[in-house]
Amino acid sequence: MKLSAYEFAQAIEARIEALSPEQFHERPRDAKRLLEELYPLSRLALSFKQPGLTVFVEANEDSGRADGQLWLAGFLDKTFEVQVTFAGYERAAALRSSLLLQQALAPGGRGEAVNRPAGQTAADSDQDGATASIGRLGISIGQRIRSKAAKPYAPGTVLLVAFEDPQLRGRGGWSRLYQVIENAGGIECGPFAEVYLFNTYSNELQRAA
């Protein structure tokens, strides 16, 4: 359904608030799509809204070539499709979520969740936590961008790469992330008109290319 950027964001937020703790952290299929695809799409749409510009957004419910579409009208008339992908080290994220459910806490900047041989989840200290985390994230983002860029998309399609990292905040964190991406080969836009990065943890959105 085609909604204004505000209406779409409000609807997505209501659905997120209705999730149980288990759904939020363990992320079954519907919750995963909600948190890792629809929520980032809503934030991208809001980023375009300003006085004199009307923004509408629609999420594709099928498995078509794009995940959503945006319409901009006013002092700028523009319509484009959006492809959303989620980057990160999924095993580590799943283990952290398991710890959150078990103990109401999980390692952030100084540790990683690990799965013990006995099947119990615990946290190990990692003195290079923040630096190592951003390094892994940057490599994952580069891989996701290259994977998507290798496929055909409609002219003008925008790529939105979402991720969740509690350690990446502010100018310093983003600078380190961009440096890792650059060292790993940079951002190849391929068929995309623009590439955006979105940290769902901190609600930070940046145009990367």
How are the secondary structure elements laid out?
Blueprint: E1 3-4, H1 5-17, H2 21-26, H3 29-48, E2 53-59, E3 68-74, E4 78-86, H4 90-103, E5 111-115, E6 121-125, H5 129-149, E7 158-163, H6 170-183, E8 194-199, E9 204-207
Helix pairs in contact: 1-3, 5-6
Describe the protein's architecture and organization:
It is a single chain. With 209 residues, this protein is of the alpha+beta class. The protein has helices spanning 5-17, 21-26, 29-48, 90-103, 129-149, 170-183, and strands at 3-4, 53-59, 68-74, 78-86, 111-115, 121-125, 158-163, 194-199, 204-207. The protein has one domain (3-89, 130-207). A 7-stranded mixed beta sheet has the order 1-2-3-4-7-8-9, sandwiched between helices. The protein has a two-stranded antiparallel sheet with strand order 5-6. Helix 5 crosses helix 6 (170-183). The longest helix has 21 residues, at 129-149. The protein is globular and about 40 Å long. The protein starts with a strand and ends with a strand. The model is unreliable at 121-127 (pLDDT under 50).
